[in-house]
Write the structure tokens for this entry.
Amino acid sequence: MERIIVLCLVSNCLSAVHAQTFLFSPKWGPIGYKEREEYDGTAMDEIIKTNEFQASRIIDGTTSLRDGDIAVSSGRRSKVCFARSCLWSKSVDGHVYVAYRLSPEYSEIETKLIKKGMESIEKGTCVRFVPRTHQRDYIDIQPKSGCWSYLGTRGGRQTVSLQSPDCLRVGVISHEFMHALGFVHEQSRSDRDNYVTIMWPNIWRDRLRNFEKFKTDSLDLPYDYGSIMHFGMYAYSQDGQPTIIPKNSHNSKDIKLGQASTLSHIDQMKINKLYKCGAMDEY
Ligand SMILES: [Zn+2]
């Protein structure tokens, strides 16, 4: 009898905790990502999971997130960033050096993961991440709330937030660095409607804006379904139904959207084209 009472108390406690989470979570809402055993999530799925449930959409009084993880300061127009105006400068030796400062709050293992994310960008491209010494422009990698980055270089110090441990996956780290290099999400491309169908009725209503198009320069590269910058098929789903469906009629079921941990070949090509690197095999 005693045991039954204890069990009842525990279950009462659990339901109380649950109710509290429900009542006080400002982010309570539809799932926003698909959690299924056979579904191999994308980097963006991880980011959505972290940012929707833990990070505030408003980072501070003047900065907010758009498209899920791109930091925007009020008064600055981020949409024009894909042009050449926000590129990191190129060294005379042909490399693009991105100086960084890493928060001392990260553990040794976390630091290794962040460096793996950097290596994933460096592989096959002319980008090199270097610890900051004297450089004026640099990224300041910090375990703030959520996974987010500004778009392109802004001049001076700019934060890339990689919350611990949720954002410390190689794919997520690379994804945020791609934003810092100036890339938007692949399905934000201005020509995306030729390649994917956005299933507007399935999208969580508060997040419809995350599916807006940007005026992008596609760099004459094909639409990249497998980009590390592509949303997953169920991104911001309000009812578990797909929000993005590939248009290719023959094998659309075989096309996987997004990428979990590495840059796609086209992602590497994008970097090399935007930054006018040499041939890929040089790196
Ligand atoms: Zn993103």
In short: The first helix runs from residue 2 to 24. The two ends are 71 Å apart (CA to CA). The chain has a mean pLDDT of 83.
